[in-house]
Write a structure and sequence with these properties.
Blueprint lengths: L1 H4 L4 H8 L7 H7 L4 E5 L2 E4 L4 E4 L2 H4 L8 H13 L12 H18 L4 E7 L2 H18 L7 E5 L8 H6 L16 E4 L4 H4 L6 H19 L4 E6 L15 H11 L3 E5 L14 H4 L5 E4 L11 E6 H14 L12 H16 L2 H20 L5 E7 L2 E6 L15 H11 L2 E2 L1 E3 L4 E4 L7 H26 L1
Parallel strand pairs: 3-13, 5-6, 5-7, 7-8, 8-9
Antiparallel strand pairs: 1-2, 2-3, 4-10, 9-10, 11-12, 12-15, 14-15
Helix pairs in contact: 5-14, 6-14, 7-13, 10-11, 15-17, 16-17
The protein binds pyridoxal-5'-phosphate (PLP).
Pyridoxal-5'-phosphate (PLP) binds next to helix 7.
């Protein structure tokens, strides 16, 4: 209001003052921001009163949907009780203690991973991955193997954008400007059959090749230099990429053979996104470290967690009398308000059976997309697990020729989808748009979203045809 009164609009104030993350400065200065004013369930409205179905759930994170007053109430109670106190030097608070206990129990029971010992808290998926990166080093330093430090990630992976996490991320666009990745991070092939299989290669042969590449990388670098392998069970930003059958079982065997730790990055897949509580369960992963964020609070409060396995924890614990305090942590580690919001959020997910709903609505959304746009000449692949779905574009469906690099067909479609009142995310690594709506979405909303998407695709047809030539 003050801005308007001064004849200086909020849009203009944003343009002149706000440095936006992952945004083109030139485009922001030209087009200004989209100011989101509110939301309920799966719907948002912007400041101009436009209604949008959010099939992104923000950045894959608003699992319970918008406008859940219980989360605000939980935050208000926690703030009134204890706005903040730190958790360094063993200070603690009740909400975060209860959350740590609940997370270990949930992951042990729902993911079938018994050997998890402790939870370390941060405020973002990136910092949780930095924590895991450092714990891997600490573990090997304590074990007297300082040369065993390298971490293998995959091309197309997204693990965040801080210095270490940004290095683990396997997408060149995030590296170029910042001289990343740092030394000690390696990337192996992306397990996306539709796009990266060679002509004539079936899925089994493709998986054989991925495993052979990984084995060769480990041999080339020397197994005694490789500390860990990090993976999203289903890759998100890479394009909602579902791994080929047996891929993770075979990766697991290789890691065990060479004493290499497994970090499961469940920042997107955690808390029901794939139709189960944690996607580690889908592929039988037995991680030594787990990264959680996003759905932990449905993004109503910035909170992340690193679950630390017994294998690492026992080394830290036994060394502790001699090694001194673990010199790692953040001002907001173990924030009481985050703990309270996460507990209320987990209550909603459980009480309203949102994981079960994702398990039903995911296949329904995929089926609707296949029926409505599956025959479209530029829609190549529709895939996913639960409510984590990708639609990948292809320039020639028969020969599986992809669009030229940088032509970005998915951005054109996503922009037209916005004009139709639908938010989907344009993912650059594989010319994919993703659908990852809040887990509370129902069939009528899915029908509406798919209809809006089909209209957007029809409107983009001339540009796609031109780009496909
Ligand atoms: C799998 C995965 N890991 C880590 C991150 C980083 O999380 P944040 O943006 O909270 O730092 C993301 C964010 O999208 C993610 O998708």
């Amino acid at each position: 209001m003050v801005a308007d009164a001064q004849n200086y609009s909020l849009e203009e104030m944003d343009r002149q003052s706000f440095f936006h993350p992952t945004t083109s400065i030139a485009e922001h200065l030209r087009d200004g921001p989209t100011i989101i004013a509110g939301g309920t369930g799966v719907r948002l409205r912007d400041r101009r009163g436009r209604e949008l179905i959010d099939c992104g759930a923000g950045l894959w994170c608003v699992n319970v949907g918008y406008g859940r007053a219980e989360l605000g109430d939980a935050a208000a109670r926690a703030m009134a009780e204890l706005g903040y106190y730190h958790t360094f030097s063993a200070y603690s608070n009740e909400p975060i203690i209860r959350l740590a206990d609940r997370l270990l129990t949930l992951f042990r029971e729902k993911a079938g991973v018994p050997g998890l010992a402790r939870v370390f808290f941060g405020t973002s998926g990136s910092d949780a991955n930095d924590t895991n990166f450092k714990l891997v080093r600490y573990y090997n330093n304590l074990r007297g193997r300082p040369q065993k430090k390298k971490i293998i990630a995959r091309l197309g992976a997204y693990h965040g954008l801080t210095y270490a996490a940004g290095s683990l991320t396997g997408i060149a666009a995030f590296h170029r400007a910042f001289d990343l990745p740092v030394a000690g991070v390696l990337h192996t092939a992306c397990p996306h059959f539709y796009r990266f299989a060679r002509p004539g290669e079936n899925e089994a042969a493709f998986t054989d090749r991925l495993i052979a590449d990984l084995e060769a990388l480990i041999a080339r670098e020397g197994p005694d230099t490789i500390a860990a392998f990090i993976a999203e069970p289903v890759m998100g930003t890479g394009g909602a990429l579902v791994p080929p059958k047996d891929y993770f079982a075979r990766v697991g065997r290789l890691l065990a053979e060479h004493d290499i730790l497994l970090i499961a990055d469940e920042v997107i897949t955690g808390f029901g996104r794939t139709g189960v509580w944690f996607a580690s369960a889908l592929y039988g992963l037995q991680p030594d470290l787990v990264t959680l964020a996003k759905g932990l609070t449905s993004a109503y409060f910035p909170l992340s967690a690193s679950l630390v396995g017994e294998r690492i924890w026992s080394v830290l614990r036994e060394a502790s009398p001699h090694s001194g305090p673990v010199m790692h942590g953040f001002t907001y580690s173990g924030h009481p308000v985050g703990g309270a919001v996460a507990m209320a959020n987990l209550d909603i997910i459980e009480n309203e059976q949102m994981v079960e709903n994702a398990a039903q609505m995911g296949p329904y959304l995929r089926q609707c997309l296949r029926q409505r746009i599956g025959d479209h000449p530029f829609v190549g692949d529709i895939r996913g697990e639960g409510l984590m779905i990708g639609v990948e574009f292809v320039a020639d469906k028969q020969t599986r020729r992809f669009f030229a690099p940088d032509s970005q067909p998915q951005r054109l479609v996503a922009r037209n989808a916005f004009d139709e009142g639908l938010l989907v995310r344009a993912l650059g690594f594989t010319d994919t748009v993703s659908f990852s709506p809040p887990l509370c979405i129902g069939p009528a909303e899915i029908d509406e979203a798919v209809e809006r998407f089909a209209r957007a695709l029809a409107r983009t047809m001339p540009e796609l045809s031109r780009l496909a030539r």
